[in-house]
Amino acid sequence: MTATQAQTQTRHDSHVKGSIALRAHPTPLQRNGSLNKYESFDVTPVIGSEYKDIQLSDILNSADKDVLLKDLAVQVSQRGVVFFRGQDITAEQEKELVDALGVLTGKPSTSTLHIHPTTEDTSPKGDQISIITSKRQSEYSRGDRSKLASVGWHADITFEPVPSDYAILKIHTNPDAGGGDTLWASGYEVYSRLSPPFAKYLEGLEALHEASFFKDAAKNYGIDLREGERGSPANKGGDLSAVHPVIRVNPVTGLKSVFVNKGFTRRILGITKDESDLVLNYLFSLVSENHDLQVRFRWSTNNKPGIGDVAIWDNRSNYHTATFDYGRSLRVGDRAVSIGEKPYFAHDGKERRESLGLPSWHQ
Ligand SMILES: [Fe+2]
């Protein structure tokens, strides 16, 4: 038995059926209409909304800041991802905003902002900003890289026991020729495509998420893995693994979503490895092969220093992936990731299509 198999078996034994965190679901939050004065549109029927004539920095300086940001948080959780063109928001303001989205929608007081395990302690914008740069990406992806662009679908940092609720990314430097689009996919809609008996089966299961590859990456970069608290007292140490329910309920919307992802989920517990591989690969294919539950965002190219498009998404109920089609061109952005609650399943969670009065896939 390899070390990884032994670890999986240990977790398998210690997470018997019935250990899933269950709780009565809080009343879903409703939008308060405070953002209706700004023009926006839904990018696809299932996922994604976009604003053009609004500066997030103005919202942060507004007397109604908390009302506006709470509305934004609910919209992000309902629509999966919300885009803002031409933003002047700074990295410090990104941190303030994404933390506020979680705080205003009831995240635990112990949850703050994530410190990525591979962020250097001398990072120029501080511990809580991940600088997303094509320079590091090209170093990191050398070697035996998959030729399937869809291999990168993930939700952020699900290897942490208390993972992310919201994340924000601003791309301020983008190649003139374009490229580097980001895609998001709806975990609510993936759940909707499961037949009720299969969904019910999955609702009783948990899965192991892990990111030991970040240990190798840190070694390659010549930096020490961040083993102190990473945004929650539960997120520390060098293990970089966690067990989460396969089906999760989003506390803001009360909606069920599939919560396994190709990037970090290794094993469904309590069933055989063969069964786990079969089920996980099917769930991953629902994400990557259904372009009608995805949205693709083209980041604007501009030459104005400090200006860039912004995306804000809910990591609890969505997946995303990058597009590495820009060669050696420079593409740089700042990302901040808020820590949310420990994932849980609630029997009174709802299926998205039914909650919106849309036809079921299974009638
Ligand atoms: Fe990500």
Automatic annotation (TrEMBL):
Extract the GO molecular function terms from the UniProt entry.
Answer: 2-oxoglutarate-dependent dioxygenase activity; metal ion binding
Q: Can you list the GO cellular component terms from the UniProt entry?
A: cytoplasm
* UniProt cross-references to InterPro entries, sorted A to Z: AtsK-like, TauD-like_sf, TauD/TfdA-like
Where does the TauD/TfdA-like domain start and stop, copy by copy? 41-327
Superkingdom of origin: Eukaryota
Q: Which residues form a coiled coil?
A: none
Q: Where is this region: Disordered?
A: 1-33
- Alphabetical UniProt keywords: Dioxygenase, Iron, Metal-binding, Oxidoreductase
* PANTHER family in the record: ALPHA-KETOGLUTARATE-DEPENDENT SULFONATE DIOXYGENASE, TAUD_TFDA-LIKE DOMAIN-CONTAINING PROTEIN-RELATED
Q: Which family does it belong to?
A: Belongs to the TfdA dioxygenase family.
- Give the protein's recorded name: Putative TfdA family taurine dioxygenase
Q: Which organism is it from?
A: Kockovaella imperatae
